[in-house]
Amino acid sequence: MGLIVQKYGGSSVADAEGLKRVAARIVATKKAGNQVVVVVSAMGDTTDELIDLANQVTPFPNGRELDMLLTAGERISMALLAMAISNLGHEARSFTGSQAGVLTTSAHGKARIIDVKPSRISEAISEGAIAIVAGFQGINQDTKDVTTLGRGGSDTTAVALAAALEADVCEIYTDVDGVYSADPRVVPTARKLKTVTYEEMLELAASGAKVLHLRCVEYARRYDMPIHVRSSFSNQEGTWVVKDHPEGDSGANMEQAIIAGIAHDKSEAKVTIVGVPDRTGVAARIFQTIADADINIDMIVQNVSAAATGLTDISFTLPKSEGAETTALLKGIQGEVGFASLQYDDQIGKLSLVGAGMRSHPGVTATFFACLSEAGINIEMISTSEIRISVICRVEDLEKGVKAAHSAFDLDAEGEAVIYGGSGR
Ligand code: ASP
Ligand code: MG
Predict the structure, then answer these.
(1) Parallel, antiparallel, or unpaired for β 169-174 and 130-134?
(2) Residue of minimum CA distance from atom 5 in ligand 1
(3) Domain 3-252 in CATH: superfamily?
(4) pLDDT at 248 over 70
(5) Which residues are within 8 A (CB) of 95 and not within 5 positions of it... i.e. 6 or more apart?
(6) Alpha-carbon dihedral angle through residues 172, 236, 17, 187, given to the nearest 10 degrees
(7) Which residues lie near ion ligand 2 (Cβ < 5 Å)?
(8) For 118-156, how does the pLDDT look when each residue is reduced to its tens digit (9 = 90+)?
(9) Residue 57's CB: how many other CB atoms inside 10 A?
(10) Domain spans in the chain, listed from the N-terminal domain onward
(11) How far is the CA of 9 from the centre of ligand 2 (A)?
(12) Disulfide engineering: 345 pairs with which of 85, 88, 270, 334, CB 3.0-4.6 Å?
């Protein structure tokens, strides 16, 4: 008994059958005596299809209009889901992000939630109805325009709402049974994690694990909101994302305690600025230019400058989607900064090993690099945090690297993970 926020992803509501199946699950949760708030994504690949459509009309869709278009996807699923629930004899009311009080910054396509004022949701559930909220969207109070939170943003809507409503748990329903030690689409023998800490999940999500949206995990950590990631296609217990691993959990399997999981990411590109004068302030000038455009960069490597020339090379990675803008910005300051040339490489992959146990176990890096070398994979860049090691390699070597690391750290499970739906798109 309590207040449960459930989020259903696009693959769980891909068609009318899916919507009916999800409706039945929601009703069962309600019948068990809970108040239920549901956040829903657009059906199947709707968001991708809408983006494709926009790109057929114009190569540069306007941000405001693109958000208007994309938010329609979640409106379709929320209304249909409310109808399916009502067909089962329970009252359901659907709300857009704006109606649900999701207030965001004005950055179209990547808005951040500033506040959630869910008075209409509280009202609906206190009157005994099930509230259905369109995920991934909100409204900016200054412009009064509808915004979206970035791809996969419905998870963040769900956790933000759960925090604002002081829910007992936020359940995220997806097309696999939980969070795995690697993407089960790449490593079929990936192991389902019983628990993963906010800290580990943040690193996994930031390193390309698509099972949870990064900002949803940040939110959960800030409000200490437990997330239960599970499948809408089975009744299995999923993975709990929580503050700490429960006592004893780590003792059961030492190896698992060291490495929680392996993430991979094909969405980044590498920019190399060749022949940069090695002077104070130059790096600041370069990265300020990029920051001013609100572009997030990831890894940075600066070579030792050649003594004879006083020139160095700086490489960094960033989302491919920001590549064109970034190279244009850098060309704009080439004269002023005085670098020789720019190289752009979008055929890279990032492979990351994550686990809180790394802190206290030496040798993880050595094992990791040895297994990559045995697999014949060349490492181009390296970055680390206390609980993560990431490397950049050729994109065509990436999946091979994931598999090699997964077995090098003994993460394989007995059986194969089940993938219930979704195109993985
Ligand atoms: N429908 C949006 C997307 O596909 C949001 C989400 O699924 O979370 O990115
Ligand atoms: Mg989605």
Answers:
(1) unpaired
(2) 152
(3) Acetylglutamate kinase-like (3.40.1160.10)
(4) no
(5) 78, 120, 121, 124, 131, 132, 133, 134
(6) 80
(7) 10, 41
(8) 999 999 999 999 999 999 999 999 999 999 999 999 999
(9) 9
(10) 3-252
(11) 6
(12) 270
